[in-house]
Amino acid sequence: MNIPNTLSDSLYEVFPSILLTGATGFLGGAVAAHLIEEGHRDSLLFLVRAEGPEQGLERLRDNLRLHSVLELDLQHLQASQVICGDLLDIAWLRAERPRLMQIEQVINCAAVASFSKNPTIWPVNVEGTFAFAKVMSESARLKRFLHVGTAMCCGPDRPSPIRESWDFPPSEEQLVDYTASKAEIERRMREELPQLPLVVARPSIVVGHSRLGCQASGSIFWVFRMGFALESFTCDLDEQIDVIPVDYCAESIVALALKPTLEHSLYHISAGNEASCTFGEIDRAFAHAQGEEPVGERYRKVSAENLRELANNFEARIGKANPRLVLRALRLYSGFADLNYLFCNQRLLDEGIAPPPRFSDYVDVCVHSSRDVSIPAQMQWDFK
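Given the sequence above, the corresponding structure tokens read:
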């Protein structure tokens, strides 16, 4: 399937033509940084939760500094490039409709990306996102609506490597509310908004930045830190995990959003068979960055049911933490790790997008950027 995306240079000179949501978050911030680096700064509009455009601009600048965007570029961003709005309260859609109807590309990174029982997950990720997509589907100018999902929305009990598919398990079979919500919004947009020029990008496990490490976010990296600190988890060291850095994910998203034609409407952004790492490889890279010996033979695989037996070592190994919260977090992440999924990325590579770096090649910058952050503090990224 060819999906057209004709860009007009003259339109860029009159008004911004790329709308990015979620730019104050981890992945959305990386996407914004890459768009600016690629020369699209003045073509951007940003949907930001704020009381006014100036406040929204400051929130945006603060986050982009974490992604090392040049101060000169930050100061060139204007409050007029900020749309104040929230997918939890969609009243702004009517007021901003004239500007929305001028947009040529949407990159939708906004979501409640939490593995907690956050009550806003469904209202934001499904209801609010659908209302936004419905308005955009009514635009004659819109060329592409690039929606960021998650590869884990495939659910459990799938043969690995996982290929792109629009088939989802029932919500009650999903491991967490977040993945259930991401599957549901994809289904609704595809089935109920056939006129929407929808392309979905599903990242696998996004951890750190290949150059900045955990400077912008420690999301999920704490799991590896905790596993090696406890010298135990529910995986074998020879099992593989599909991890990509946020900057590679962002570059791929931008390429899929702006490439003139695409062969498909659904893509994994993943390490795939070639760039996935074993836990043993990550252990060795982690230990080298720490200046220590790998866990190696000291490592002990435990069952999910027996994770509780690790609790006595929490404070000594990872610092002061709420044992109940730590156990809950370990159980959730062990559920994903035990799936042992790799996600096929051949569609992405066939579009001419380069393969990702291996996690073991940039673990060191994640380690060094996390040295002053405790594991329990870093864990809060994923349980907001």
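The longest strand covers residues 198-203. Try to locate this feature in the token string yourself.
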